[in-house]
């Protein structure tokens, strides 16, 4: 009989790290080439003197790593759970295959996205009159048109690539039967939901932030560090804490999909309530009051506190809606 390992999720974590490392290493090498050896190296170095470029580039690299890591972790654990195993006969071989496949997929996906971007912008240029009449020359609609389709394609292709790498690596080994599937606990569901919420927050924040900073760019690096790094870290911790406090102790048949739906619901519920409250407040303020409030530092503090409260409310509501509490069976009194 095979005995289960001391840490049933050890293989899952090793595979996740093995998938993230090529992604981060490849991103660093690409940026190094752009800055040092590309034909546009001088222009790139000039762009990187802007604080927003430095912060958002690092953030996008981290976001890609988080998305790939989350996909790999869920795919690997799901495969092991389907086979009721917490290990494989040759874990080193599985990790090596995953590393090799991840490197190949990184090159293929990067090349494919570059070609897709070129084809998309060529389509926009060739159909400029229709694009201008439908989306305008400037504004939020035009910015979303140029960013949203490519962003969605990049996310979907990255998820598919992470899942495919795990499946190819799994074909090279055999699960060890009888060791029991790795556990899927409430803390796993809470962190998956929190990471999903964070990825939504960062992607939407980068899309809207990139549009608004075109018109109001700050020269201070600290502003971007707080907005793109510090506040998202607090949001992640808050969402995970609320999830841990409100998820049931037993998840039943709930899997990764429900945790991802939990994070998605929490984020969009937060946005819906936030926009509604903002419009309600602005509707009852004069132009002078809005101008004075925009110049006050206390306004930003109040807005952030309200936003954190809405994040907590969204996470709490998602946990209650998607994970209904199970009543404990009543105790039978002795005769």
Question: Can you walk through the features of this model?
Answer:
This protein is mainly alpha-helical. The protein folds into two domains: 1-182, no CATH class; 184-325, no CATH class. The protein has helices at residues 10-36, 41-47, 51-82, 91-126, 128-135, 140-171, 186-212, 221-246, 256-283, 287-295, 297-322. Helix 1 packs across helix 4. It is globular, with a radius of gyration of 23 Å. It starts with 9 loop residues before the first helix and ends in a 13-residue tail after the last helix.
How do you describe this structure in short?
With 335 residues, the protein is mainly alpha-helical. Helices cover 77% and strands 0% of the residues.
Q: Assign an overall shape.
A: globular
Count of separate structural domains:
2
* Structure classification: mainly alpha
What percent strand? under 5%
Q: Sketch the major β-sheet.
A: none
Which value, in Å, is the CA radius of gyration? Answer: 23 Å
Relative helix content:
over 70%
Termini separation: 42 Å
Secondary-structure map with pairings?
Layout: H1 10-36, H2 41-47, H3 51-82, H4 91-126, H5 128-135, H6 140-171, H7 186-212, H8 221-246, H9 256-283, H10 287-295, H11 297-322
Helix pairs in contact: 1-2, 1-3, 1-4, 3-6, 3-7, 3-8, 4-6, 7-8, 7-9, 8-11, 9-11
Descriptive tags:
11 helices; disordered C terminus; mainly alpha; 335 residues; single chain
